[in-house]
Amino acid sequence: MHFSENSLQLYNKATEVNMKYQSTMELVEYDFGEQLQMNEIIIEQCPDAIIFSDQAGLINIWNNAAERIFGFSKIDAIGSSLDIIIPEPFRKSHWQGFDRAIAERATKYMGQSLPTKAIRKDGTTIYVELSFSIVIDHSDAVLGALSTARDITARFEQERRDRRRLKELESNAE
Fold this sequence. Notes:
The chain is an alpha+beta fold and 174 residues long. It has helices at residues 5-28, 32-45, 64-70, 74-77, 91-104, 153-173, and strands spanning 49-54, 59-62, 113-119, 125-136, 142-151. It has a five-stranded antiparallel β-sheet, with helices on both faces.
């Protein structure tokens, strides 16, 4: 059987459209439970701490890196106030900024990583680099605050030693 060039082009186009339709249907039939499971794996395996708190500042998500960095298990952290990792002298200003960010639906530090002090379960002070965002759902409601944290204690202390040494060298040179 012989097909004209035009018929062959129509057949190829129909095949292409059918393949796109099937791909779209596969996406529609996608298992969202599988996607949620993958999201959970990604959160747990992230090398930085991921902490999500609700509008009241109670921890809802605390990943493996948060356990490692701050020393609190998920059982200890989830449902607890963010105060468990905020040094006492910083709490008042933290909560003022937190409440303002929740009310304004944004943080003035969006897109920035800020070094700050934090406390571990054993009471030791560490230095962490934090990033913040306010989480808003599809209905435009504020769910809470998301932060990522990275322990920078070793780097911070080395930089402090370097600054002291430089200051010492400069004063000796005078």
